[in-house]
């Protein structure tokens, strides 16, 4: 009854297969109903016909024309003609001409040789026919000739639109497969080289060397370079579209080919060396023997399971659930290890003690023959069982047994603080309750208690000057949050005096730089002047304390408990789990990595770009400054993995009873455990490039992993710099 007809559109973004899957490319998953209901349409009569098959991109163009709006500039869809069939021939031709003009303009912007495109040529022909039809129409010709010519022009337009849309869609969905394959090959070669180097890198000498000099002078290397260069020439000369790798200079391309060839030759050399060593008889079977514990099985199964889960979009969206499950399972296995060490070893019979002593004697003799530190034997399972039994007999036995359950409680509280992912992100959490204006006093109390707890947990290993700087810095953090209106002081009754808090934030930055500078001075002293491990340990802890203070400044007030629980769990695991059970450096490293990943999601992060808190890039800045903004945002986002990695270095450096190669072992294991999921994920993304959620799910995750790789590389460089003393000893 109204002057303008209504329109109801029923549609879906994807279909579903018979098994319930909706992310693939099967016919059931990519075909979905599209229904238009309007009083403007003519009532259909006669038998039901097969519905037309249209592209999902056609919906935008059709709705724009139907509502009298301009078609989106970057739209590649066509008008669905049955929707406008009730209009006059002149209006229909006007609609398809507008659609064709928009597509031809888009083609001109994206294709240099657009004039040779078949769709563009067809559109120009249709335009000429359209002009002839308009001349007849203006002359008042209403004969059958005008109607037939109109149908012919309409058919020409539709063919031109179909061809133009197809050409543009191919450009949008076009992947530079050659460049992607080259990058994937290099990544997989590096990963394979790391995996083949595990036995030597985790030995007592902790040597990781890439044997590039022999391959560079081998015939295989030059043959591979020649073959790869020939393939490069063939691909680049026959490529019809733009290729990033082909656009590089020939000098750069040849360098990449030489890198691929050298890595391949190094891999083959490492495989041959392992094969030759496997033929040699074992001189000391006690030292070389290895048995799998529950922790080792969990670490292997968890790493493989997490890597495989990256092939499913739902697991990527809810990846936090994977890390929560792995850390919870790890705590339960640690509880089992503590119970076994506490109760079972107390009931050992004399025969077990004799066997234990004989094994220790054999290990000691073997270490003397190989010139290996005795501390390496102490890190074995034999030494671990004996030393843990002695430790847990003390007064801390019950605290040690309760520590995994305390960690589980902390993790459960952290899960309630921030909802993340996709499925349950809309549900209210404790963080939303705290940030509401009605509970500002509760948030203020929680922030104050959190900052006091952070000071208590951090100051125990700092120097006197750093303790004062830390206390003043944490006071500055609260003052900054009060200045911008997040929290209030007890004597404040309103938040009228809100500012940017630039002075308070810069006040904290001064103390952060001071603490980091003090730690760096101690590190340089331990590296250059003296090799005192206590000075080095203090320096590392002060650098770590400076980063804690920076994180406290950048974190939002309701996220300060995340920092508190991070320090609390690290303290509990150091004193009551890692030291009594004497896990080796590789196991401790992977535990740090797992908890670092879990704390990444405890902060409220996800694999979606929307959860990145860009406001941290403006803390203490009057305007946008690119480099500080990028660094602050990256640090605040990856604070969890970064702080756990730096704590790993502090822990391994402070353990004087460990093998001197422990830091090197930790660095190598951290690089491997980070590289495995990234390398496999790059291959998975390449294979799943036509997946329905490639841009909404897989691509953001790839961006997160890319930044994580850069941070991991920086961490490994820091590890290597701190391991120089061991390198000097190995040379001596």
UniProtKB/TrEMBL annotation:
The chain crosses the membrane at residues 177-199, 219-238, 250-275, 441-458, 470-489, 501-518, 585-604, 624-646, 667-690, 702-722. Signal peptide: none annotated. One of its GO terms (biological process) is GPI anchor biosynthetic process. SUPFAM superfamilies: Alkaline phosphatase-like. Residues 395-705 form the GPI ethanolamine phosphate transferase 2 C-terminal domain. The keyword Transport does not apply. It comes from the Eukaryota. GO terms for cellular component: endoplasmic reticulum membrane. It holds the Pfam family PIGO_PIGG. PANTHER family: GPI ETHANOLAMINE PHOSPHATE TRANSFERASE 2 (PTHR23072:SF0), PHOSPHATIDYLINOSITOL GLYCAN-RELATED (PTHR23072). This is PIGG transferase. The gene is Pigg.
């Amino acid at each position: 009854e109204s002057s303008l007809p209504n329109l109801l559109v029923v549609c879906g973004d994807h279909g579903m297969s018979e098994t319930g899957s909706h992310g693939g490319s099967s016919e059931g998953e990519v075909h979905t109903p599209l229904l238009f209901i309007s009083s403007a349409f003519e009532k259909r009569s006669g038998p039901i016909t097969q519905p037309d098959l249209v592209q999902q991109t056609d919906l935008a163009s059709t709705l724009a024309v139907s509502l009298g709006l301009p078609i989106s500039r970057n739209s590649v869809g066509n008008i669905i003609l049955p929707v406008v069939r009730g209009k006059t021939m002149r209006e229909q031709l006007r609609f398809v001409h507008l659609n064709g003009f928009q597509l031809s303009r888009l083609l001109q912007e994206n294709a240099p040789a657009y004039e040779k495109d078949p769709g563009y040529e067809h559109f120009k022909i249709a335009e000429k026919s359209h002009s002839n039809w308009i001349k007849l129409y203006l002359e008042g010709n209403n004969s059958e000739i005008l109607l037939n010519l109109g149908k012919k022009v309409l058919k020409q337009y539709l063919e031109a639109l179909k061809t133009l849309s197809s050409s543009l869609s191919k450009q949008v969905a076009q992947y530079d497969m050659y460049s992607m394959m080259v990058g994937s090959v290099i990544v997989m070669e590096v990963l394979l080289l790391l995996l083949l180097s595990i036995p030597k890198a985790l030995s007592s000498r902790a040597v990781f060397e890439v044997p590039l000099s022999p391959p560079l002078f081998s015939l295989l290397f030059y043959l591979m370079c020649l073959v790869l260069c020939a393939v490069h020439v063939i691909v680049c000369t026959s490529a019809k579209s733009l290729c990033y790798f082909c656009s590089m200079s020939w000098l750069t391309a040849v360098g990449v080919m030489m890198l691929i060839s050298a890595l391949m030759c190094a891999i083959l050399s490492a495989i041959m060396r392992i094969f030759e060593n496997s033929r040699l008889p074992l001189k000391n079977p006690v030292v070389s023997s290895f048995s799998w514990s529950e922790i080792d099985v969990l670490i292997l199964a968890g790493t493989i399971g997490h890597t495989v889960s990256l092939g499913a979009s739902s697991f990527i969206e809810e990846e936090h659930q994977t890390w929560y499950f792995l850390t919870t399972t790890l705590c339960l296995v640690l509880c089992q290890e503590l119970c076994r060490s506490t109760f079972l070893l107390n009931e050992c019979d004399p025969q077990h003690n004799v066997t234990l002593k004989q094994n220790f004697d054999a290990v000691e003799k073997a270490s003397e023959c190989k010139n290996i530190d005795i501390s390496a034997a102490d890190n074995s399972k034999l030494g671990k069982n004996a030393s843990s039994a002695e430790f847990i007999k003390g007064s801390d036995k019950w605290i040690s047994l309760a520590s995994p359950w305390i960690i589980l409680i902390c993790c459960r509280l952290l899960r309630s603080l921030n909802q993340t992912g996709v499925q349950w992100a809309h549900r209210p959490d404790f963080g939303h309750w705290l940030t509401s204006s009605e509970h500002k006093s509760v948030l203020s109390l929680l922030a104050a208690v959190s900052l006091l707890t952070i000071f208590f947990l951090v100051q125990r290993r700092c120097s006197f000057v750093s303790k004062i700087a830390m206390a003043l810095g944490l006071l500055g953090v609260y003052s900054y949050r009060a200045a911008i209106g997040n929290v209030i002081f007890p004597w404040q009754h309103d938040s009228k005096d809100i500012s940017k808090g630039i002075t308070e934030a810069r006040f904290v930055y001064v103390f952060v730089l001071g603490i980091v500078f003090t730690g760096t001075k101690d590190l340089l002293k331990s590296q250059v002047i003296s090799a005192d491990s206590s000075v080095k340990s203090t320096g590392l802890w002060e650098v770590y304390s400076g980063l804690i203070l920076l994180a406290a400044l950048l974190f939002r007030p309701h996220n300060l408990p995340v920092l508190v629980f991070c320090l609390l769990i690290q303290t509990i695991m150091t004193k009551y789990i890692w030291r009594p059970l004497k896990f080796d450096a590789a196991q401790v490293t992977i535990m740090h990595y797992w908890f670092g990943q879990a704390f990444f999601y405890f902060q409220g992060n996800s694999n979606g770009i929307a959860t990145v808190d860009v406001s941290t890039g403006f803390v203490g800045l009057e305007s946008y400054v690119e480099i500080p903004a990028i660094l602050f945002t990256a640090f605040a986002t990856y604070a969890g993995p970064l702080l756990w990695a730096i704590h790993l270095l502090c822990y391994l450096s402070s353990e004087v009873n460990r093998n001197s190669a422990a830091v090197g072992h930790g660095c190598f294991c951290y690089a491997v455990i980070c590289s495995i999921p990234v390398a496999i994920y790059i291959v998975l993304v390449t294979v799943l490039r036509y997946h329905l959620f490639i841009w909404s799910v897989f691509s953001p995750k790839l961006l997160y992993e890319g930044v994580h790789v850069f941070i991991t590389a920086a961490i490994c460089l820091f590890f290597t710099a701190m391991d120089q003393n061991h390198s000097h000893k190995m040379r001596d």
